[in-house]
Structure formats: C-alpha cells, structure tokens
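Team,

Forwarding the record for the chain on the shared tracking sheet. I've put the sequence and predicted structure together so nobody has to dig through attachments.
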Amino acid sequence: MSRTRSVASSVLGVNRRTVLAATAAVSVSAGVGYALRPTDSEAATADAAAAGGAAEAPVAQSLPQSRLRSTGGTPMAPAAPLAPYTKGTTLATVAAPRTSSGYRRLGDGAGWKRVVRGDLAAAKSGRAGRRTALASFVQFTDLHLMDTQHPLRLEYLRSTDKHAWRPHEALTVQGGISLVERVNALRGAPVTGSPLHFVMTTGDNTDNNAKSELEWFMKIMSGGRFTPNTGDPRHYEGVQNSGLKLYWQPDATLRDGDKQVGFPHLKGFLAAAIREVRSPGLNLPWYSTVGNHDALPLGCFGSHADPYLTELAIGGKKLMTATAAEAKKLQNSIRDAKDPKGSGYRDFLKAHARSARSITPDEKRAPYTSAEYLKAHLDPAYQGLGPVGHGYSSANVDAGTQYYAFRIADDVIGISLDTTDAGGHYEGSIGATQLRWLDKTLRDNKDSYAVIFSHHTSKTMDNTRPDPAHPTERRYEGSAVIALLGSHPNVLAWVNGHIHRNVITPHSAPDGRSFWEISTASHVDYPQLARVIELVDNKDGTLSLFTTLIESAAPHRTDFSDLTQTGLAALYRELSYNAPGSSTVLGGDAKDRNTELILKKG
C-alpha cells in the first residue's frame, strides 16, 4: 500500500498551529466530514527526539483556509511527554479492593502489564527503535448517562434480576465528567508520546433516549455547568427515596437489601447527586457514534414505538415495584424481541397505573428523534473544540443517516457506522445501503489505513428486523461486516462497545488479510474503563496497535463524608464494584486489556 508522505518528514515542514475542519460534508448519502486534526508542538517534538524515541505526530490536513478555524491559541492536546509513560493509565495502578468480604472499600492496586499478541503476525525484534506514530485516540463507550427519575425506567426488574438496577446509577454524570478530566490530564499517547488526536464515543451515550440525558452528554463532552436533575428542582423523586427495600436507600436508616450486604447510610447523598455540576469539556476534538440506547426508547423499543410511551415519559407517574413473576415476563418479552413497538410494555404500565407513584412531570424527559440527536451535535452551543457536528453534518440530517467517514491523519481514515436497528431490540445489524457505502468508502480510500467504529460488536449484530423507514431493505448481521472488512487490506481495526466488557478478537481472511476487533468495557459497570489506542508503523513489514485502558480521574479511595463532585465520582466507582451481580470479568483477561496487537502491512 503506497503512502504519500511519511509522518516523520511532514513534521519538519509544518507550522505548528492547531486547526479545525469546521464543516463541509462531501457525501450527501452519508455526511462524510473531515477530522479535527490536533498537531504536536515543536517543544513536544524536541522532547521525543531527546528521548531517542521514534514518536512523531501527524500534521494538520491541508484544507482550504475557508474550511479551517483557529482555536485562538488554545492547545488541542497537552505537550507530549518522554515516551513511553504510564502515569494516569492502568499500566501504573488500577482500583482494587482493600478488604475481601462484605462491602469492599477500594484503594490503589497493581497496574496491568502490557501483553504482546501475535495472533495475526509475529512481533519482530528491534521494532521499538524503528516505529513511527500514525495516529492515536481515546475511545469512550457505554457512558449510559441516566435520568434516574425517568418514568419509563425498568428498575423494578431487579425483583427478578439483580443486574437490572445498579445502586450507583444516580452518579453517571459525575463519573462521566471525571473521565473527561482523566483524558485532559493525559500527557499524550502512552507508548509513542505523540499528541492524542481525538476522543470517539462508541454509543449508548445516553440511557433512556431522553432529551435531558442528551443535553447532559453534550455538556459533559463540550463543557459547561448544568444540573443533572429533572422533575422537582428541589428534591429527588426516584426509587432511591421510595422506602422500598428492593433498592439502596442511601439517605434513610431503613435496612434495605443493599445495606444488609454492607452498603452505607449516606445522609445528603441524593441532594448531592442532583446538585449543579461543572464539566471542563474535553481538551481534544471529539466524535460521536450512535448506540441502541441513544436511538431507541429504553434501548430496545423501535423508532415506531407506541406514542403512549411518550406521554408517560413526560408525565407525572412512575412505577417503582412489580412482582418477580411480572418482572420476569416483561424482561423475557424484551429480551426475546417479542415487543419491538413497546405495545406490551404500554399494556403492562396501564395495568399497573394504580400502583405508580406521583412525581413531577417534565417535558425534558421526552424521547428525542434521530434528527434531534444530529441537530444537538451540530448545535454551536455544544461545539467545544469541535469539529462542527462531531462527525455528523447537515447532509446526515437531510438524508436521515447516522454514519460518516473522517480523516484522522495523513495515512488514516475513520469510519463511524450506525449498527442500531430502528425496528426494535437491543441487538444490532446494518442496512444494505450503509453496507454498500462502507465498501465504497474503503475502496475510495484504499491508500489510507482505516479504523472502523460502531456500537455493536460483530457477535451482537444478529437482529435483522426491518427498519420501519426502509421496510424492504435487507439488513445484514455482523458476519457480513467481518467479510467485507476482511476483503479490504487497509482495515486495521474495528472498535466497538455494547457488551460492557473488554474483548479483543483477531479476524483473518483466507488470503491473509486481517484486522483486530477491539471491544471495550462500559463506563457504567465496574471497572468503568475507557481505552487509548495508538497506531504505529514498525518499519519492518508490520504495524502495531497499542491499547491502554484508563480509569476516571477520581481517587480510588473514597470518603463517605465527601459528597463533592469529585467525591461522588469516586463513590461511583466503588459502588459499582459492590453492586449486586457486578463481576470483575468485565475487565477482561490480560490479553484483552493493555496490549500490543501486531498486524502485517497490507
């Protein structure tokens, strides 16, 4: 594969200014945009050279001046450190329990070592001294920012399934902000030291497809002050002050089920959880990929969901309890995709209307449409460091699509897919039109390496229910995407989420073409991780993909008397570790965490 210009040579000839591709979709059908490309400073380049490293940072894409915008001197990324480094990553330390039974308090634990994986190509000696950086970025996934007082939520499924409600859910916003703070504190890419180019979210940014949650997501990512509360502006009105033993009642002395296994009594917790917060916003550009919880009410009911559910979403009644038998029946209907329109759920809620509790109505809880999701990303109020639309464009709005391509570096493109199925259910698929577009985009950019982003994994794309907007269009499972990606030698990685666990899978075609599928754990379930991914050329016929996991910036140790924004973010992690049904297996084996993934050059 030809490369028009090496990163090393281009670094020397470019004035170090931060630039932003402000707009200009070039594909009406998909809204193809150009990436915001942060560049390193001359000082950072000098640091890397002094260290004897081969870490070079890409240069800004040359675009017409009409499509560039200066950021007024604000750096897009911190100066690169001497590489490699571990500070702020799970290579250095990971939250770990300090006790072995009961409610376990967390503290600093040993870091996770990096594992070299040669499943697809052998690692050659001396590559560390030869390699040059191609690109580096951060992946967020499954933030699940929650309006925990939303009337449509299914907390009562906990009566049949302990995983169905998490005691820490009221703190998703504080945890999300702390993750932003962690990225802002990183000094660059851990292995190469090159500046990080961007952050990509791979879906389930929100939890209930609620306008309130979408606003919180946009402000967390781009910066701002807001109050993570709906309904009564003075009081929390959800299951955690219901007096029901089914849920942790933090402010009450009631010995609920969670307190019986050691959860604390934290007076003032709920008032703190809905207090105003401030996000600094990312100091990097960020891009967005849509997930099923973003696109579908509750992540499972189709775009053609029963209108009654919208009425309930903004209304003044919330069901908080159901018998285990009733909950099991409802859960099975959702899990088996027997109720894609939510009609059965409507009937269930109507049948239990007399048991629902009164809460304060709020129109901000209404579901948002795909067009509203796109327009929120295009809103100048949420631009932050860009790019305009965060990958999406007006062409996406016009065409009703939520997929696009963008330029990451001189030799690398990114492609964000929409794998949600508007027909309903939480598993995914891809339509024929998008699959053809993906094939064409890869062919048109055959001289660039490609990184694919989606919410669903290849194994969770097994739902081919017709899209109500395109009822005759065929939908394809994950196996079809694997086959397509394997037919293009420029594909390096498919980066996704959805399964809430770290799994890295090699894919190899019969003719030797190969790529890595990198699935990353969520930031709502323990161990609440994000991932830094670096692409490097080893200059020996191989490439390496380095994956490094990061936690939020919140301290590992908690203080039950500290209900500040930072203290709540620390509690968010510790509560998630202790949540009934939580499992450390979500963190993955060593081979799925901090890795070096070897590939042959195509």
